[in-house]
Amino acid sequence: MTGAPVQSAEPMEVGAARRRLYVDGLGIIVSAAGFGFVFGLAARTAGHYSVIDAMAMSLIAFGGAGQFAAVGYVASGVAWPVIVVLTGLLNTRHILYSAALAPWFRGRSFRERALASHLITDESFALAIAHFRRLGRFDPVGYWYPAIVTTLIPWNIATFAGVTIGDAILEPRRLGIDVIFPAAMIGLAVGLVTGRRELAAAVAGAAVAVVVSLAVSPTVGIIAGGVIGPAIGLLVPVSAPATPAEEPIA
User: Fold this and answer.
1) pTM for the complete prediction?
2) Cα 127 to Cα 50, 191, 248, distances in angstroms
3) Each residue of 143-182: pLDDT tens digit?
4) 106/147 Cα distance (integer angstroms)
5) Which residues of 60-89 are buried (b: 16+ CB within 10 A; e: fewer)?
């Protein structure tokens, strides 16, 4: 996972690649805002979170599914050490994301890589890795636009809205808010399937997640699918390896 990055056979021009990135990011902005609002609402209705608590969690933890899980655990009275362990396991997939992005960040400063690791999400990873592959090299805009503009900002603004005015919405499901995140993730997954490895990982991960979720719990299912799926994908030979351009875009 830390070898040479795989790029498109014919790298796109920077301007064209960025325009596609901006367009692809529009849907993620809507998704992040919708799901951030739902998180704020969940934190408010759980009865254990103030506005400051919810906002601090979205800024410091910034863990998406892990935040939702933590809200449920707190509401159920689970001990904090257990919550830390369970939410940590839920986000272990970020380790795999980091490993996939590491070759593209080679040569960047430690400070930049540290900040990038904090802001990584499913959405920012999917948009960034697809952009790098299309371009054939690292592009700062390709990571910071997805990480900050499409996820961090809308997520936190929506969290504030959800925790402050969320009481006005009695039943989010009637507005279809609850399907925004799953729909967005399906779209991202389809965009990332560019070869046999990705297809095998996606199919295996989804199958494992569904089976384990039904047999044990959704939390364990997500963890199992996120770990086993990529592991199976690694067993499949790479279909089209290539060497990226050496000079990054400033």
Assistant:
1) 0.71
2) 32, 9, 18
3) 999 999 999 999 999 999 988 886 665 555 555 555 555 5
4) 18
5) eebbbbbbbbbbebbeeeeeeeebeebbeb
